[in-house]
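Table S2 (continued). Query chain:
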Amino acid sequence: MPPLPLTALLETNLPRLSRNGRAIVGALGCFNGKPQSPSQVASLIGLRTRFQLARALRREGLPPLEELAAWTRVLYWLQEAERTDASLFNLAQQAGIDPAIAYRLVHRTTGIRWVQARRAGLAAIVRRLRDQCRTTGTTDRGTVRAPWRTLGSYTEAGRRALEGRAPVAGPKPPGHPRGELAERLPVSGYPFDVIVTPNEEIWLTRLHAAALDHLGLEPLHCLGSVSTGATPTRIAAVGSAELAYVTNQFAAEVAIIDLRQRRQVGAIPIPGHPLGTVLSHDGQTLYVTTNLDRLHAIRLPGGQVTRSVPIPMACTNLLLHPGGTRLFVPTYKAGTILEVEARTLKPLGRYDVGGVVQEVACTTDGLRLYATNELGWLDAIHLTTGHRESLQFDTMAHGLALSPDGAMVYVGLLHAGAIAVLDRQSLAKVATIATGGRPRRIAFD
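Corresponding output:
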């Protein structure tokens, strides 16, 4: 998943931005300069109001949001015009904008007409933007920053529930759900990843709210929320560890979350936007993939990147083999699953499955690997022989998890709003759970 060309262009030419500045620029790049509202951008990067967003832009030496969005829009059009030789008339029509408004926007923003901007070229227009921005923006590029802001919110009921909760009475015997929808909890802010800790607490990332939600079971309810950096994506934790690690994409960092204190206590800066992450079994090494198509190994607790290797195309998924000595790295549209040694990151093998690889999961005995594919199928790979079986779906297969007892495979059918329950050995369909929405990640208590 290489960086968006527009985002890369902005971040390269505005290098002195702080974490908030990078997040704002990343958000505008993803929207091609046309966010729904200032409040949407503020929420995405973890600010409460558009007024906080305006102050953050002033501190960065950036223009007001409306003006910066206009610059981003113009740069997007110029990029597309240079790439495809399309006219502004056609680009505006594709975006559902009156071409006359688009031409006026270019003139008002850059001070020159579209034909002059095309003649000057993209690099010259970027320099005009850079000249408008002050170069005295603050930076916060430490290695691991602590103490951190204590942000987030817990309701009074949530605090009472946490204080009065009885200890969990040991681990449950392994099993698997019956395949019936028991409870539903509305969650805003684009929920993305979810984990369940051994003490039966649920932690959920919300991409568009810059928050990590803390949920309780029986009944399913929200206990509170921890503020993070922009676009928190994946969570990594080991066993009953007190710390969790969250990849904050637009902030270009991995957040360190204290699960007991329920707050962010530090962050590890990462080159590029961190995507997938997983912890070693001993909790001493954190593995992270980024949109620069790199796999990093990070020593904990110091946060130093000790090893880094290129991969064909990174995505938000990464898996540690149950033995702890190997990593499986799906490569998204490259259509392969890489197998690398966990200690050295040296390649051990690859599985060419084609399509667009999403989630991967491995049986507890380490003998069989499963992978969902965006083009509509599930692969089951025998790791000792390389033999592969596939099960076709008539829709995108995305989320993936094996039941605690290893008997069932659960596949999230993103566009169908359902989870398919399969017998692990035969891949025969056992049940379908109609969740509605777009089911992505799956976790078990």
